[in-house]
């Protein structure tokens, strides 16, 4: 479990995070939801240690991360796997070498054979057993995301962070990636935090959702509760999509409703 | 100016704390030595051979006084090559080739979040990415400068003899005349200092790139420009202090 307490962060005097308190639960897909510029990615970067918050603390399973000793932070970092928005695969390495890299660096006691087995297992787990010898430039965006997930889980991470895992992907591939993250979260009982503004992800895998707006946490709950919330900012965010409005009407009326625009007219 | 220098010092310091394992760093250094050293042999060979040739021809063109022995041409080629042309011109060429490559490579890694990926894994990114590049440059530049010295003098010999400016024995006599071994040591010290400056400045510029592709290009250009200026200043300081 990750606990975030009163996190504040500002850039050049502009507050981006205004005292966020939240908890990310173990064995669940925790979604950080919000529009562009609401501070989701900044909060994620503060949690993983790529940015230092101005005020506040972050605790990983009871161990304080912020302002702790370098060795302790290093130890926590080695339990973190992260899928970046652009996948962040190392260009100069093959897919297999990318997955093997954290094992080489973090677990020197592993033999070459054990490492190879682990790489094969991880690539198979994400459905890329034949992509090992390929270079990142030779594979599609969806495959890169899956390699990113394989690299993140290779050292048997305890915490998985995903920064907009669906960006740049078609809806079908997005759902596959979402489901893969969801399966892995439950399979290995890890704490997964996903930054997204994709309502499909919310509906698909949103077990615990935290909604951020203008640097503040306005709501948290589950995907079953989100369609009936009364927080105006969240309602505006969710129902800006005609598809979600239609889904809501289907849900309310128990039948297929017409898709309407914001004035209620049929589209 | 002082702020940037302070940041540069902190950047170099961060590379030495929480270092990665020696085996990992050594493997990375070997890989970088191939990119920085072996891949630069061709350009260094071409530049140094022609500079030696041109130096010889131009000295021969200017030394028309019959009272000055022809061997002086060989002597001047050797002195100019060892003291200045081989270390300084070679390193200026390398600032363009190696400096832009280091800054561009690290800048691209930074904007595509590859550096962040390393940091999230708990790896000291400066130690893993910058230290091997600097070590490889410090190891390979003196070797490239020695190669440049040899090829430059050879170029001068070939140019002098093939154009008929002088007899081969005159050139040989000139390059053996009043030889001071310390000049070689001085040239190698210069190459080590220039290697440190080029790799350090280029890594610093690349590592601190923010933005997109345009900024990576700007970082590469800045790395080359600043490296060349630093080389010229260091060249003067070293000459004043060590000669």
TrEMBL record, chain A:
Keyword Transport: yes
Entry superkingdom: Bacteria
Coiled coil: none
Listed GO MF terms: ATP binding
PANTHER family membership: INTERMEMBRANE PHOSPHOLIPID TRANSPORT SYSTEM ATP-BINDING PROTEIN MLAF, PROTEIN TRIGALACTOSYLDIACYLGLYCEROL 3, CHLOROPLASTIC
SMART domains: AAA (SM00382)
Pfam families in alphabetical order: ABC_tran (PF00005)
Protein name per the record: Phospholipid/cholesterol/gamma-HCH transport system ATP-binding protein
Provenance organism: Hymenobacter caeli
UniProt keyword annotations, A-Z: ATP-binding, Nucleotide-binding, Transport
From TrEMBL, chain B:
Keywords, sorted A to Z: Membrane, Transmembrane, Transmembrane helix
Classification via InterPro entries: Permease_MalE
Segments traversing the membrane: 35-61, 82-103, 134-159, 180-204, 224-242
Pfam families in the record: MlaE
Name assigned to this protein: Phospholipid/cholesterol/gamma-HCH transport system permease protein
